[in-house]
Amino acid sequence: MGEMFCRVVVIGYGKATGNILKYIEKQRDIYGYRLEFIEHEFHALSVTKKICEEMGIPYANMPDKRELTEYLCDIQEKTLIVSASNNYLFPAACVEKENITIINFHNALLPDYPGRNAPSWVIYQGEQETGITWHYVTPGIDEGNIIIQKKCAIGPEEKAYELTERLMDLACEGFEESFAAVLEERAQTRPQEAGPGRRMYRSYEVPGDGVFALDEEPAAIYRLLRSVDYGKSAIFPPLRTVVDGVQAEVVRYRKIVPEKKKDEEHVLYLPLGEAHLLKIKYKEYRQE
């Protein structure tokens, strides 16, 4: 083992990043590094900012990509950058610096489902299991050697926001299990074995292109609805369909038993298996 890391920079946002940040802070007494946190994507009620204030961790908000890139490329000490729930793409100029090592959390089992919104795509594609990957960062997106992976089943009723929360918990577990090995540069990694037709999922892509037809298989429609459901976080626009020749958008949906069916305006009921109905509340779609 050569020179130790003397600086750790965490970049990300949200609850899981906060837990990872607290864990890294607790390990400082053992390894003696300096710790700092950068929030690239602003959140009004920032959990991570509050943690930094409570624990005395230097905090910076850098929404400007150019500013963040210049800041990271100016680092001279041997530094570990921990990218957790972070959508900033590290440029090659930063990744290839000899004094900088970057690890990243991805919410799928790489090499499958690289890119953005992986929980949505695994639900939409009908996968039975998924998981998380911590990997080293290279100039290519989600291509670096795998440090650790943890798997979980996908529930038949699971929505995207529910799966995302479970994956965040797994990410924290995987990080704590591998952090010492990464810091001490003894992590046993393995390369990703991606085929030539590897599909990259982009932030602008929506499962099913954001639309469905009422004559589609109800189970597939239900899967699509769950795949874009992030609760109050409107990551995707409402799904659209056509009802009696009129463009409509989904307001909400539920799986119910037939006994709960009521005659309501702007509500559809589709058979979902033998014992349930898919209830879809909709409104007329008006393009802004």
Structure at a glance:
The chain has about 290 residues and is an alpha/beta fold.
Q: Which term fits the overall shape?
A: elongated
The CATH class of the largest domain, by name, is Alpha Beta
Q: What's the pLDDT, averaged over the residues?
A: 94
Gap between N and C termini: 59 Å
* CATH fold-type name of the largest domain: Rossmann fold
Structural class by secondary-structure content: alpha/beta
Describe the biggest sheet? 7 strands, mixed
- Can you say what the CATH homologous superfamily of the largest domain is? Formyl transferase, N-terminal domain
What percent of residues adopt helix (DSSP H or I)?
A: 25-40%
Poorly predicted segments? none
Biggest sheet strand line-up: 3-2-1-4-5-6-7
Multimeric organization:
single chain
**Extended strand count:** 11
* Structural Rg: 22 Å
Approximately how much beta-strand content do the residues carry?
Answer: 25-35%
CATH architecture of the largest domain: 3-Layer(aba) Sandwich
The arrangement of helices and strands along the chain is EHHEHEHEHEHEEHHEEEE
Number of domains: 2
